[in-house]
Amino acid sequence: MSRLPTPNSILGPSYALLPLESQLLLVTSVLGTSPAWVIYSLLNDTFSNGGDVVLVSCLNEFTYFRDGAKRHGLDLQSHLKKDDFIFVDGLSKLFLSDAGSHGPQSIPSPPTTPSSLRGAIPTRAPISPRQQAPSIPAPGKAPSSLDPIRYITLGAAVGTSAAAIKQLDVIKAAVQAFPAKTARPRVIIEGLDIIMSATGIDVARIEDFIYELREITSTMAVLLPADPPLVHTTASSTPLEISHANLLVSLGHAADAILSLRLLDTGVAKDVSGVLRVTRGAGNLWRGAGAGAVEEKELLYHEADAGVKIFARGSGGH
Amino acid sequence: MSFRKRSVVLSADTTTTNPTAATPAATNINTPTATPPKGTRPSFLTGVSTTSTGTASLDALLSGHAGQPLGSLLLIEESSTTDFAGALLRYYAAEGVVQGQRVVAVGVPESWGRELPGLSERREDNSDSTGGGKGKSAERMKIAWRYEVMGNRRAPLASSEPADAAAASTTPTDIFCHTYDLTKRLAIPPSSKPPIYIPPPPPQHATNPHPFQPLLARLTTLLSSAYDDDTADDSSTITRIVIPNLLSPLLYPPAATHPTNVLSFLHALRALTRRYSARVAVMISLSTGVYPRSTGLVRQIEALSDGVIELHPVPAFAERAEMRRGASASGTNTSGGDEVPQGLVRVWKAVEGKRGTGIAVGGEGGGGIAGMEGGDDLAFMLTRRRMRIERFSLPVDDGDEEEEKPTKVDLEF
Amino acid sequence: MAPPKANEKTVQYRRTHNLLLGTRLLSQRGTPSPFTLILDSLSQSSIPLVEEYIARAKAIRISVVYVSFTTLRPPKDVSKVIKARGKTLDALQKEIIAATGAAAPVETQTDAAKTPQNLVVMDSTNHLIPLSSEGGGPKNSMNLAFFLSSLLAPSIALLATYHTDIPRVPQMATTNAYAPDPAELLKYLCTTLIKVYSPSHIFAQKRALDKSLPPPRFGLEGIEGAIASLGTNTGWCDTCGPKERSQGLIYELEHRRMSGRAMTEWFFLMCHPSKRTKEKLILLEDHPAYNPAITAPTTEAPEGLDDSDLTFSLGLTAKQKVDRDGVVLPYFDAQSEEGGTGGRILYVPGREDDWDDEEDEI
Fold this sequence. Notes:
The structure holds three protein chains of three kinds. By secondary structure, chain B is of the alpha/beta class. Chain B has helices at about 1-15, 25-30, 55-60, 85-100, 130-140, 150-170, 215-230, 260-275, 295-305, 315-325, 400-405, and strands spanning about 40, 50, 70, 75-80, 100-105, 115-120, 180-185, 195-200, 240-245, 280-285, 305-315, 345-350, 380, 385-390. Chain B has eleven helices and 14 strands. In chain B, helix 7 (about 215-230) packs parallel to helix 8 (about 260-275) and helix 8 packs parallel to helix 9 (about 295-305). The longest helix of chain B has 20 residues, at about 150-170. Chain B is globular and about 60 Å long. Chain C is an alpha/beta fold. Chain C is built from eight helices and nine strands. Chain C has helices at about 10-25, 45-60, 90-100, 145-150, 180-190, 200-210, 240-245, 320-325, and strands at about 35-40, 65-70, 80-85, 120, 155-165, 190-195, 250-255, 260-270, 280-285.
């Protein structure tokens, strides 16, 4: 089962000593690298420690993670049925309202009615199991087999950013939906940048959102792309680029650790998928923050059918 | 001739399926082990259904799937004002038409579809004789040099093939990827539906703050009427969505380039490909001359795509080709000039080999990006007959064919 | 910014004067600095320095008010934490003044004029700027300069951090294009400006410069896709563990006096007190990793080149120098215009040279 590296093996052995409270991990990637294994690694670690976790993705649907996690020996489907995992789907409906609210044509209405899709969720604090399965009636293997419980689809956020902010509250409500335990839940968010740029939400609002989530979570992992155009800003940069760089660097300043995935500098190799760099974030520097420390390192990683291997340069990984 | 036979088969096909149309399409879809829809075949890598892009050597670039996985979105970028990407997209559309799939061309007028290339008439190209074709395809397959791993895979595949071949001997339409002739125009076979056109946002709506909304609404309607309704008889047909020249200033109003418009459109498109993941494939072209890759907007568009391939025409190559053609005019090899690449191909984001992971090419070969292993450059060449992508080798200047030949590894199959 | 060259001549003076001033500023004793601004980046956070300030403030019983915009786990030593997120500038101002006023003035008789009773620490002025009228905050909000000057009573010292690498999202509609950039305004208003650097980055740059190599680039300008370089927030120490070690950093300090004189100096804040001086702060040049020539900072630095134990002299007398200049090296005049007579190439062409009398010449 443990074919995935544990957070301790990534962040240093003393990471576990840190207080599990408001931790922030910033995971950056570039085009061509897949940070999904870091998600699986965090999920696996949470489940094996009996914790709760919310996975939010605005880039990929549940089956994507289900299939990928299965390859690495993690059964997300079963956890979805248990009480320790919530998946928030920010892809399927975010800009695709079947509601026909804007479509002039008569769209053959899918089983879900628009009214149940909107409105109901954001207001209710502890989310009762969503009654509507994500309405994918026809093809696709996905949601029909999915238990609707613990599977939340973000509603439409077409047009104004106000609608999108409402969807952020849905995510927050999902985190609060866990029954109170000693350990706070973890949250993993992917594709927040897409929400930000595609809806035009102000970057400060996104930051507030992350701050609010950190207050109620043990560890929060934010996955963002760090391609050069999105990081290096000049006077002529577009608002999209500046907002993205602003978000990324702001989070970098608050993070406990920054995990950067990039491609091998020397080109593509058969037995190396990319480079993982772990650096200490400012959040880890406070002396009073416990005995643990994130240890900086640069490792190669290789993702294959046999699992994910992380190894030092030159050690070959075999 | 391949043509006539195909139509025969298709009619046979429909007559056989129509009586059983009572079976809900959904179940049909949920069990892809049943006869795969036309123009698809399981991926060599994972078994997921793939369909051809209409360009064999492009199929070979797709992470060992040897075809475009259904439910994915390919982005073809082109860095100059040339229209090589347009040719790729026309092949893509033509392949869909020939395979009897539903082709939806978004953002272009109908005239775009009149220039789809016709099927090549060369005997060996679209040969459908079972024995010869199989042997040939097997041989061609070997040339997918990038995926030597597939050499191993082929053995079990081939062993299981005879049964298929027997069944398929009467269905000669099984060609996965056809070969086209750019000088011909595609005559739409009677068995196929003509492409559906969703026009670009009308110019008088230049001030429309949401130029993509009508496009998206029509796409959604189209797809949901085809697939959401279980009684629809064509719910097993594959839909290809072709979006040439996305954001081209000639087609789209300026407001379209705003992230809140174009990114939400692409996000919705991505959601559609996932919702109908067994039935829909998308190919988009984008000019990186107008929208450079160094901008954040393009990076996010790329992040929303499943695969990103950039064509980078190099005019110097073409000049060289001209020179060489002049030099070898008296020579015997008249096609010498055609073999010169017109530009470079870069794979910026590989289609995911195994979904949900970064494993690009099966088992042992798992680089992050497929396509450039070992640092080899890829080059493309568009000839009268076909578009090819192959390993780039600088053409030898003095026209020494003997020297040049062995260095080229042909991808074509 | 590249590290300074080690300067043998002035180091002795600076060791006594600048180091003393740096220590007093850090301890908030004797030399007042009402507004200290720390500029940091992803490569080195200001937190170790801020912690040092807080620890020293606590040691002399100055009450510390921590204004938190982004910090969820503020340091334990502070007297009061103000959560600033989501508040307006007016509310924040009232709250800070209330917090600092509430702290009863203690020991007013002992050097009250020099030592403030309150240290206000602000974790991110990047988040303060958008609240102000310059930063495009809500209408009729206070401007930044007014906000800061309203805080600066003699009993209050302000220690604020600004993250230099966070690009500011421009607010077209509300800001005056001719007003100074808020970040520049902060730099102008502060009385002490500190830039922090990661020791391992500074040392790596110094080593490269010593060999006339281009200095390596770190942080966002480093390798594509890795937003922080190795050596980020790690400090530099041979003896401490990773946790303690990271309390060390290098900073460049500029202190502006009322007289107009400014003092600029590079310091190294060590993670543990030096055994000899019992002080964590040393000059950067006194750190052996930066300046290997320095072995013991207080022993008299050797003057010039010490060659007393050599058996020969490396120097030249005046006559020897004149003689050396007079030596004519071979081929020297052959290179002059006329060709001279000094030298000639003697070469007999062979058969393999394919010599052509009409065209070729030597």
